[in-house]
Amino acid sequence: MKAPRIVIAGTQRERDDAFAVRIAVFVDEQRIPREEELDELDATAVHCVAYDGDAAVGAGRLVMADGYAKVGRMAVLASHRGRGLGAAVLAALEREAAARAAPRVRLSAQLSARGFYERAGYTARGDVYDEVGIPHIAMEKAALP
Hints:
It is built from four helices and seven strands. The chain has a domain of 99 residues: Gcn5-related N-acetyltransferase (GNAT) (Aminopeptidase, 3-Layer(aba) Sandwich). 30% of the residues lie in helices and 39% in strands. The protein is an alpha+beta fold. The mean pLDDT is 94. It is globular. It has a seven-stranded mixed beta sheet, sandwiched between helices.
C-alpha cells in the first residue's frame, strides 16, 4: 500500500466514497440497517475519506452539536485495518473540530474499539449501552489547542 491520502470531502464524489466505505463496514459487515447508518446528520457533517490510490478504504464524520464536536461513523475496510488509517482519519477530524473551536470531542465507541480510542487520548464516560444491537460506550477528550 502506498502512503494513504486523507481527504476532507469537498465534492459529492468524495462524500459518496465515504458513504460506500460506511455501507461496506456497517451495513454489509456488521448488519446495521442502512436506514440507521445513513441519517439526516450526513447532510451537514464534515466527512473524511482515506484513499489507497484511487480506492476509498476508510471514512469518518464530524458533527458539531451544542458546543462540542462529535466524531462518528468511523470505518476502515477489513482489508485495510491495522495500517493506521483509522488513526489518520480520526486525527483529521480532530483538526477539523479544533478549527471550529470545539472545546471537546465526543464519540460513541463500539466496545470493541474502546482501546483504539483510549490510545488516541479518549476517556470513557458512563456505562456501556446498546446502540443498533452493538455494545457502545461514550468517550471524550479535550479538543486540540
